[in-house]
Amino acid sequence: MADDEPRQTEVCITLSDIDPVLLFGENDRWLRLIRRHSTGRVVARGDTVRILGEAEEVRRLEGLLLSLIGLVKAGQALQQDDIEIALQTGGGDGGPPSSPLLEIVAPRRVVRARTAGQRAYVEAMLTTDLVFAIGPAGTGKTYLAAAIAVAALARHEVRRIILARPAVEAGEKLGYLPGDLKEKVDPYLRPLWDALYDLLPLDRVKRLMALEAIEISPLAFMRGRTLNDSYVILDEAQNTTPMQMKMFLTRLGSSSKAVVTGDITQIDLPAGQISGLMQVRQLLQRIPGVAFVELTRADVVRHPLVQRIVQAYEELEGRA
């Protein structure tokens, strides 16, 4: 072999205590997906998996398979997005979700933190009263916060969930929109509704709303309130003004927690207006009891194209 040729290597993994079908899917559908996205060879025979190829690619595939094996051992039925995310992240640390920090048990589903950034985010929400999550679209900022809130409500750790958004970019000028108040604000609150409907049965969402155990409203409606025994989520916080952010943060009452999410690359405030999220990141960075989690394109868990789109925009902004 010439000195400049890539070094070839081989690794064997023994599936001693799991069914290969659970790992590779019916008719090896997950195995075929892995092969399509790899320059190495993955050969499965009985309970033995051989990985052959360039050393770096073999290490990547080994970590990916060990990560998926960990999920199977933890009782997770693998889905296509599990495989795609493992392919994007290179398999993470190769271990199962062995800590409760990695899983959120909601009534309709178990939600797993899938990346290192998401694990840090979940841990912060479970251990800190005020968490700021800043990152691009698709990193699970809103969904993970909603899952934590729903789980806390189910365990009776809080009496209600309050989800808020700037209803219209920064100014919240609802009067110019057609329809009654609900029709005006619903399009802006739809992502929060979608998260709740994914985590809870529809009839239960309606019942909890009737009991005022779940409330979704424009940020402007928070003014003058004290929010006790609540899990409060402020979404799209990059579109708050400094005064709106201060108003929201000072609503927090006893036995309550708050999560503030936003993407500082998608600020819709008028030119020259300071984002409340940008300001608060500098103002509260060193305050005890406050956590800031920075998510990146490596934490994107939507379609694989989203990660590449985020990267393209980052590169464009870097050239500007």
**What is the second-level CATH architecture of the largest domain?**
3-Layer(aba) Sandwich
CATH topology type of the largest domain:
Rossmann fold
> What is the strand arrangement across the widest sheet?
8-7-9-10-6-11
- CATH class of the largest domain, named Alpha Beta
Describe the protein in words.
- It is built from 11 helices and 11 strands.
- By secondary structure, it is α/β, with parallel strands linked by helices.
- The protein has 2 domains: 82 residues, Ribosomal Protein S8, Chain: A, domain 1; 220 residues, Rossmann fold (3-Layer(aba) Sandwich).
- The strands form 3 sheets. Strands 8-7-9-10-6-11 form a 6-stranded parallel beta sheet. It has a 3-stranded antiparallel beta sheet with strand order 1-3-2.
- The longest helix is centred in the N-terminal third of the chain and has 19 residues.
- It starts with 7 loop residues before the first strand and ends with a helix.
- About 3% of the residues have low confidence.
Compile the SSE list and pairings.
Elements lengths: L7 E7 L5 H5 L4 H8 L4 E5 L2 E7 H19 L6 H10 L13 E3 L4 E3 L3 H12 L2 E5 L6 H14 L5 E6 L15 H19 L2 H9 L3 E5 L11 E5 L7 H8 L7 E6 L13 H8 L6 E5 L9 H16 L1
Parallel strand pairs: 6-10, 6-11, 7-8, 7-9, 9-10
Antiparallel strand pairs: 1-3, 2-3, 4-5
Helix pairs in contact: 5-6, 6-7, 9-10
Short description:
The protein has 320 residues and is an alpha/beta fold.
Descriptive tags:
320 residues, alpha/beta, Ribosomal Protein S8, Chain: A, domain 1, Rossmann fold, 2 domains, six-stranded parallel beta sheet, three-stranded antiparallel beta sheet, 11 helices, 18% strand
